[in-house]
Design a protein that fits this description.
four-stranded antiparallel sheet, 9 helices, 12 strands, binds adenosine-5'-diphosphate, Fe-S cluster assembly ATPase SufC, six-stranded mixed sheet, Rossmann fold, P-loop_NTPase, alpha/beta, about 40% helix, AAA+_ATPase, about 30% strand, ABC_transporter-like_ATP-bd, nucleotide-binding, binds magnesium ion
Length: about 250
């Protein structure tokens, strides 16, 4: 699915990622953890193709195709979904209409016609039932007055509708209350399949009590310094990140 080779990236001439190697196969859930400032969000943004970042070395492949030269939008159309940490409010645009537009834009980019209204409604109904989203929520203006949990619900709903091949959820270090945490975890667990892959980025282990990752990677100073199974997340929760830093500098 995703193959990252020796990725080096910088922002404003400051080197942030310093040789990342990562392979994510279909059906897998990977967690990326690490201390604040280690480069987790940068990695997510670089995979998604955000243009503020410059790739200085290395490559990113999606299903065997080099995507380095593609713009963020093109990557999204190829099936990369990045959760937005700071969602915008769009007064007057309902959650439903926002989703319809997103779906049809994505189809258009693939040379497809708009999804027939009947199919769209069915998809919205099926996905919202799966995620236990009520009808009232669907008619609200996007992100307007949304609580943290509701923003997450909208984000997961969008992910469900777009059916990405690779979903990257970059969870901010704060602001995930129990409600929001459960929404994200349930969503990921319901949406994961043998055909897609998920990268969950989190500073804290507690999200991983609900989403059980197949692999855990620790990012430190722009490099993956340790990889393991789900037990690595527990070890980090118990011991913090300092031992990793010491191991690296030893
Ligand atoms: P994490 O998500 O692990 O907390 P980030 O990827 O957000 O880490 O940041 C990694 C490093 O890059 C930090 O030192 C941060 O200050 C720096 N950085 C991130 N974004 C920018 C930016 N827009 N301009 C300058 N430095 C940045
Ligand atoms: Mg940070
Ligand atoms: Mg971050």
């Amino acid at each position: 699915m995703l193959k990252i080779n020796n990725l080096h990236a910088s922002i404003e001439d400051k080197a942030i990622l310093k040789g990342i190697n990562l392979e994510v196969k279909a059906g897998e859930v990977h967690a990326i953890m690490g201390p604040n400032g280690s480069g987790k969000s940068t990695l997510a943004a670089v995979i998604a193709g955000k243009e503020e970042y410059e790739v200085n070395e290395g490559s990113i492949e999606l299903e065997g195709e080099d995507i380095d030269e593609l713009a963020a939008e093109e990557r999204a159309h190829k099936g990369i979904f990045l959760s937005f940490q700071y969602p915008v409010e769009i007064p007057g645009v309902s959650v439903t209409n926002f989703m319809k537009t997103a779906i049809n834009e994505s189809r258009k980019a693939k040379g497809l016609e708009d999804m027939p209204a009947k199919d769209m409604l069915k998809m919205i109904r099926d996905k919202s039932e799966l995620l236990e989203i009520d009808r009232k929520f669907l008619s609200r203006s996007i992100n307007e007055g949304f609580s943290g949990g509701e923003k997450k619900r909208n984000e997961i709903f969008q992910m469900a509708m777009l059916e990405p091949k690779l979903a990257i959820l970059d969870e901010t270090d704060s602001g995930l209350d129990i409600d929001a945490l459960r929404i994200v975890a349930n969503g990921v667990n319901k949406l994961k399949s043998k055909d897609n892959a998920v990268i969950v980025i989190t500073h804290y282990q507690r999200l991983l009590d609900h989403i059980v990752p197949d692999f855990v990677h620790v990012l430190h100073n722009g490099k993956i310094v340790k990889s393991g199974g789900k037990e690595l997340a527990h070890e980090l929760e118990a011991k913090g990140y300092d031992w990793i830093k010491e191991e690296v500098s030893a």
